[in-house]
Amino acid sequence: MAIATNLGFPRIGGKRELKWLLEKYWSGKIGAEALLEGAAAVREQNWQWQAEAGITQIPVGDFSLYDHVLDWAIRVGGVPAAYQNGKLVSHLDRYFAMARGTQKGADLPAMEMTKWFNTNYHYIVPEWSADQAFHLDAAPFLEEITAAQAVSPDARPVVLGPVSLLLLGKLKGASESPLVLLDRLLPVYQELLAKLNEAGCAWVQWDEPVLAWDLDEATRTALKHSLAHLSDHFGNLKLVLTSYFESLRENLPLAFELPVAAVHLDLVAEPGQLEEALQHVRAEQSLSLGLVDGRNVWRTDLNRAVAFAETAAKAVGSERVLIGPSCSLLHSPVDLEAETAIDAEVKSWLAFSRQKLAEIATIVRAVNEGRDAVANALHQNAEAIHTRRTSRRTHNPVVRDRAAAVLPEHRRRGTEYGTRQSSQKKRLKLPLLPTTTIGSFPQTSQVRQARSQFRKGELTDAEYQRYLEQETETCIRRQEALGLDVLVHGEFERNDMVEYFGEQLEGFVVSKAGWVQSYGSRCVKPPILFGDVQRTEPMTVPMAKYAQSLTDRPVKGMLTGPVTILCWSFVRDDQPRRETCEQIALAIRDETTDLEAAGIGVIQIDEPALREGLPLRKGDQPDYLAWAVGAFRLASSGVRDETQIHTHMCYCEFNEILPSIACLDADVISIETSRSQMELLDGFGEFDYPNEIGPGVYDIHSPRVPSTQEMVQLLTKGIDVIPVERLWVNPDCGLKTRAWPEVEASLKAMVEAASEVRTQLA
């Protein structure tokens, strides 16, 4: 019989219970015991939901208080020396110090954070040292397995494999690959396997997501070596080798050569790999079929998915078929039934995590009992798929005609950067090392309450507008008092940098409860992009114009770029992404030119997702970069020379796409660099990045307030890499998640640092 499996479930809880628990713990409102008890309740509810849906092999170990990669670094003893600090008196103190920094007891910055492959989930980057010693620290993980087995005897531990764990981290102070540590690490995994055998586990999900990459020979050898070394210790365990987000491609023969009991195929990323897999699967191996999209919210075409499952079952026998999602459901909202805000027609096209579990169960039942056993479910699904395909709401001829009329000159500024820079300096009259922020300021409980009251009809349009204007004026005055050179309006009218635009652009619907985890307690609610996109009226102009009227200093107009709106939405999958991105770019172009007409001289078009959207395989990257860069240029090139275009990027590795970043031709780019101590800036220097750049000098994802001297040191490093006349001073990212006291203290230190460095230079 085919088996229903799952690779992971959202951690946040149906009502974001984990978020509220974490934030209460961090603020001192609850203690460690209440946090752990509450988290355990969320975790057990996840198991119950999966078991009730018919999932046989429910995942265990996919839950995390902050990040699963950080969890695995700690489980193998990978705690950097700085955090082996006697002032961190508990396991949780150490854990959260590594994740988000601390000034409690020990003054420590957070560890580096970056994107999980090509998703908007952020993981904590492990720090390995040349003399790294490993040891097993997995007691809580083993306790979770015992608890999960009480819910489902076939609960399947999720293990991040040793090769991926090492390569997702950085070997500090050395140029070698972290794989030099592999033989030191393998005894820890050997001990872990013994513990899993003792726990009575039957299957283990062995995640090696680096199989989705182009692998060099050293990595291929490491994968072979690690599993060959460990295979004598499998005992009764059966390993399902798991990767996701991409086809295995040339790594497919390698995956089936390894001593594993099953290989997972992401058939959403590439359905065609099943045919090749059937040629390589060994007689004793099973196939794990990822047939339900774990990253998006559209219903699965069940008839098509069942056909794939039937093909596999016919070839190898249904008892050797495992069926599940393409990847962990971490990237999908929890439950569509909780959704009351989405238009009924669009809602009929959707499936969130709990609905995806039901889809998996339906596919398994169709394979095991025949299609007649699930005929009604298949019929209803086929109707929804057909309705979506044929709906007039998904196609707008006006939008398509406009996109077809785009010419090459629409993607170019009027002159080269050097000429523009001269015009902008005359207009803006900024000092050396100009200071600014990335855009948002604290979204306080009062701001959120006012927004809620407005949506409930408890505040009129006029009352809410007056409130927003008061908050904006207060924000402008605070920035003036701090001495910032280029101001922002604070974005108090915006709930999220993408959702805000999704609420105003045609072609989107916005959910009420469609939350997913971005990192830690930070949850986002991506809008759902179902149809052709166009702007019907200005979206940001009135607030930007009002803010500029309050001050003589430049105020930035704040926009989200087309690639980021695309990547941070649940995007339609019925047409090429490049076409959708171009439609968004035209809408942002309209907003950009309207901001300029309203007197805004500095416009920031954020593209933090540019690197995130990069395909995992190098051969696919040039095409993506061409249309992604083209979309940004289409959005930004309708303005005059004297209008300064900024962009912002954060929490990713930029170096491999620096030529494309330069091709954006933004006048100023701000980037996140503080967690890496300006390490990311080195690539810009080596590349000789031609335009202006603002390397972030403090980490806004940590509550820690940095000192002036720390920022002076980072700025000094920046000047060693980038000519000072092209250097800006700013935080790493927006400030909406922080509180005003720490924001003002940090910005005060930042402005003082810029002033001190100016004095040194003079």
Automatic annotation (TrEMBL):
InterPro entries: Cbl-indep_Met_Synth_N, Cobalamin-indep_Met_synthase, Met_Synth_C/arc, UROD/MetE-like_sf. One of its GO terms (biological process) is methionine biosynthetic process. It catalyses: 5-methyltetrahydropteroyltri-L-glutamate + L-homocysteine = tetrahydropteroyltri-L-glutamate + L-methionine. 5-methyltetrahydropteroyltri-L-glutamate binds at residues 16-19, 115, 120, 522-523, 568, 612. L-methionine binds at residues 438-440, 491, 606. Binds 1 zinc ion per subunit. The active site is at residue 701. L-homocysteine binds at residues 438-440, 491, 606. Its cofactor is Zn(2+). PANTHER family: 5-METHYLTETRAHYDROPTEROYLTRIGLUTAMATE--HOMOCYSTEINE METHYLTRANSFERASE. Belongs to the vitamin-B12 independent methionine synthase family. This is 5-methyltetrahydropteroyltriglutamate--homocysteine methyltransferase. It comes from Blastopirellula marina.
